[in-house]
Amino acid sequence: MGGVEVVLAALTHPGRKRPKNEDWVAVERTETGAFLLVADGMGGHKTGDVAARVASETILAHVRDKAPSPQVLLEAFEKANRRVYELAQRPEYRGMGTTATALWLDLPYALIAHVGDSRAYLLRQGELLQLTEDHSWVAERMRQGLLTAEEARTHRWRNVITNALGSFPEARVDLLGLKAEPNDLFLLATDGLYSVLEDKTLQEVLKDFPPEEAARRLVDLANEWGGPDNISLAIAKLPEALPQQSRPYALALETARGPVRLKLGDTEEMPTQVLEPKRKAHFSWRDLLLIGAWVVLLLYILLNQR
Fold first, then answer.
1. pTM of the entire structure?
2. What are phi and psi of 193, to 5 degrees?
3. What residue intervals traverse the membrane (predicted)?
4. Can you give the C-alpha Rg of the chain in angstroms?
C-alpha cells in the first residue's frame, strides 16, 4: 500500500454481569487495508463462545491470502454458517448460533458482511452513521413503525435475534459496500457496547481520541453504566491519503454517496440499492391511538355542527 497504513484497535471484555465472554473480535492487516470482525455467540454459557469462535476462525481462514471481493466475503460467511449449523445439530451444541459483522478494507473501498445484531458504524467528518441494520425482533418492529428507539432500548424482547449464523441451513447475509474517504473511521461493535452507550457518546469518544484510547474509554464507559453484557469492538482509522485504484466490483460504489447494498448474481454485474442514513422518525402504537382519537373527535365535532 505504499506506506499507507490503517490505524487499528480491538478490545473485548466480559462486562460486569456475565461470568464468561462469549464474544469474539479480530483485526488483521492486509496488503490493501485490513480485515475486522466481531461476533457475539448465543446459546448459553456452554456453547455461545464455541459458535462465535468457530464462525470467526472459519471466516478468517477463508478470506486470508485471497483478493478482496464481495463474492469471497459472502462465501466466507456461508462456509461459517454451514460449520456452525452442523455443530448445532449435536445435542451438546443444540441451539447455538452467533452474530457476525465483518469489515474488509480494500482501499479505497470497504466491504461489509453482516448477520445478527452486532453493528458497523462509519464516522465521517464528525458524523456517526450506522451502516448495518439489526436482525432482531425490536429492530424489525421499529422499521415497521410499531416501536420507537426509546421503547426498543428497554423492551423485554430486545435481545431476541431473528437471524444468526448457524440458525438456518442457508445463510442470510447482508452485504454492503462503499467508497472510503480520507480520515474515515469504522467501528464494529457488539450489542454489549451500543445498547448501553448512546450514539452521541460513541461519536464524541471516537472523534476526541485515537483508536486504541477510544476503545479503552468506550469499554470503561459501558462498564460504568452497568456492563450488563459482553463488550467487544474493533476500530479502523483511515489515513489522510488513500490509494487511487479501482476494482472489478467497484463500479456501483464509485458514484454512490453512501453505503450500497450488494446483491451477487451469476454475472459480474451487481444490482445495487443505495442505503439511506438511519432516521428516527417512527410512530409508536400510542402515537397511532392518539391520532385516531383526534380524528374521531374532529369528525364528531363536524357532524354535530350540521
1. 0.83
2. -95, -60
3. 283-303
4. 21
